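Notes continue from the previous slide.

Worked example: a multi-chain complex. Inputs as given:
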Amino acid sequence: MKQLFNITSSVQDKIPIDKLIEQHRPALLQYACYLLGNLEDAEDAVQDVYVQLHEYRVRPQSYLPSNPKAYLFRCLGNLCISQLRKQKRTIFVAIDEAKAQFDQEPQTFEEEYQRASRLLSQIPEEQAEVIRLRIYADLSFAEIADTLSLPLPTVKSRFLYGIQKIRSHMLATSTPSFNF
Amino acid sequence: MNCKEFQDQMVNLFDKECSPDVKARLITHMDECASCRAEYESMLKYVDMLQPKHSPVWESMSPKHSTNGLGHRLLRVAASVAIFLLGVGVGISNFFSQNARATDHAAFTLSQAIDNVRNVGSIHYVLKARMKPNDNFADFYPELNFINIDIKKVSLDGDALWRIEKDGGRTVVCDGQHQYLFGDGITPLVGSVNTGFLDQFALLLLMPHEHIYYLQKKHFINDKRTVLTQTETENIITINKAENQYGLEMVFSKNDELLRSIKVWHEEDGQKTTVLESVIMDYNVSIDKAQLLALPFPSDDSRWNSAQGPTLNFGKRLDRLQQETATHAAQRIMNALISGKPEKASEALYYYQGLMPKLVEMFKGCSASQFSTPIIEDDYAGVFVRFKLATPDGKVTNKRLALRKDNKQQLWVLDGGI
Ligand SMILES: [Zn+2]
């Protein structure tokens, strides 16, 4: 027996959308939280996806996605991003503030979100996207490949390069600045 | 495996699951090559930095309703038991990240075991625990004898169907839609699938794995007391003093990597007392569905009470009770019991309806005094009120009632400590 996500569409198709969403709700919410920055907006986004997919179901069978879970996360991701664009919201964190954040463990979701956003904003979005899907949406690399329609090795290397880049940024910022 | 191959494959250690074979080869290389290990650990540090520890999602999902919730004291022990039995998604292999090398191995073993348990179709466990048959599913009492707890779970079409039965006491059944609580002298209760009848014990069976992950993060991330021992056939993980005076040991068989035994002990003044121990841990056994879901009466029977709590008609009594302080409620409950008139506090004693005669008998001739102001503790959704109880023989003991008002009408309801 393998993990759920290795079960092909034949089994997952039988799970109704609402149940699928219920099953993955914590991961969906968390993923949306890390895109939108708060739980309220995240809950709205998950609800919107639910409505969107419900409409989808009445379409002909041939349109059904082959991996509903991956599709679910793709829809949610798109929805959050378009929402962010609409609001023209950018996360601004002052440099010294950000540094202070790295010195100590974040104590709240807000702080943690700020830190993660800051770290992820330093790397190409395509890498950040993979990292978000892995860490906040709790998808496996294979599922991410499905979600983003990318080859598996590309997903893996984007993850690795992303983390490496974050590391080099961090090491650069933490070097003592008084070098005279 | 050489260094080049290691660098190419290391990323798999950050996947949700990694084949045991690949994992083993990566670990073997790290054992031999300090620079590759350093590279992995350095990556791990940054992955870990991104891992959420304070998600509002978890906070909103923490169990709010539990019928007898003094479980907070043992939350961590229960959680530590549970994490091995339930799935953990994000980066469990990262979870002991800052620890010594040995715990990396422990994490790998755990991660595999969890994947395996998640993938089995049915579970049958028998645990023996020092618990009270009719008490909640959270508190251990080192001074009591063992009772058996029988746990059966079947995964069916994405639903978890399960039954937890305390020998001669409480039983909780979940049919995928509702949870039912019943047993001798207990008000039969029915609630939604997410009802907290099992307190933290629920973690054994039901909690979304993200929640477990949260608990795990919260309680173990910096735990350096985790040790992995290996024998020819087994991996043994020991956590000493996982929480205060509690310790934990789990044994996984090496061939299928499933959890095969578990033991939780309490340690005081250098003396260890086992409080929970597995007797049977079987997987993929056939379980009879009718027996699994058997109830004392049909699910639509009027004898089932709502787990939501008491409901009063609007009126003066409702106004009065809604304005009552927890201290007053505690006094009223104790006075009602001591005076032999429990109906005076029937709403507050909602969960104890079946035990009234017993409780009245128990408190005959006692007196209660010095009720404290409400005390709030971290992991409990209600409050505690302390008082002194004097028994007819002149003995005075300190007692603590657990009260909560997270029910529909916000009435104080006794939740434990009696
Ligand atoms: Zn090497």
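Summary box: Residues 1-13, 58-64, 91-96, 175-180 of chain A have pLDDT under 50 and may be disordered. Residues 91-175 of chain A form a domain with the Arc Repressor Mutant, subunit A fold (CATH 1.10.10.10).
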